[in-house]
Amino acid sequence: MQQMFAFALIFWAFMLLAELIAGRHRGAYAGDEWKVTIASLVLSMGVTRPLAGILLALLFRAVLPQWHDAWAGMPLLPAFLLIAISSEFAFYWVHRLAHEGAGKYPRLGWLWKLHRTHHSSKHLTVMTNFRHNLAWTFIQPQAWVYGLAIHLGLGAAAGLTAGVLLAWNVLTHGNFRWDDPIRRHPRIGRFFRLAEHLFVSPGLHHTHHGYGRDGASYRNYAVMFSFFDTLFGTLHIPNGRPAKYGLPGPNAPWTEEIFYPLVRARR
What is the DSSP letter of 251? Predict the structure, then answer.
């Protein structure tokens, strides 16, 4: 389903243009912020993501040769649901461990340093979708689940899942908050809040990227299916935007944010 992924990229570009025209990126790239944003976008899309796809394809072909195309006959919809839910479940726990692991397991502090780049921006826009440490591409479970699915013969369903995930991320990271008026509506708001127990809204994910009032970076770890947060007790439904975005205190140098652990700045 390459068409779905292409549509998601077009949707991202359209929303980026709309945000720029509306002035939603004003002040977002002060200091070294533009370096982190542009470098992570170009390098992740042009280098690490294609490289991860190639390496994972070679790995599964070498380790599981007998399973090549073994599930090729599975219908598209069941395959899509299987990939979407399994990758979301795996991502929930890796994502949660990245945020909480350093406090509980000090040896896992490196995992947060790989993920913090996505959270260090003081502004949340659709550009944040691609703001990642380069090593995070190889750590996040979606790449592994998609790679295994393709090896099993579920390439179309994996492509559809990747496209839907990107489009959903555009909605949840976008600076336009269409969901706030719906949430506050005296009648519709109740049903919308119920739906937020199942699916991730912009409000849920903005809360995850914030701190202070209605900010909760230790909540809302899911990407699409918030029922995992509901099930495991990490759901926080906000009343509005968080007081602040990003991380308290100064950010790491931009080279470390992108290239850690290869680059480690002295403190």
Answer: P
Report the candidate in 229, 224, 165 with the shortest Cα–Cα distance to residue 197: 229
Distance CA 36, CA 4 (A): 28
Tell me what pLDDT residue 3 has: 81
Give the DSSP letter of residue 15: H
Residue extents of the structural domains in the chain: 31-259
Q: How far apart are CA 248 and CA 251, in angstroms?
A: 8
pLDDT number for residue 236: 95
Q: Helix H segments across the chain? A: 2-21, 33-43, 49-63, 76-104, 109-115, 136-139, 141-151, 155-173, 179-184, 188-195, 202-208, 227-232, 254-259
Residue-wise pLDDT tens digits, 136-167? 999 999 999 999 999 999 999 999 999 999 99
Distances (CA, A) of 37 to 87, 124, 167, 185: 26, 12, 19, 36
Look up residue 65 and give its DSSP letter.
G
Residue 115: burial class (beta carbons within 10 Å; 0-12, 13-18, 19+) = buried
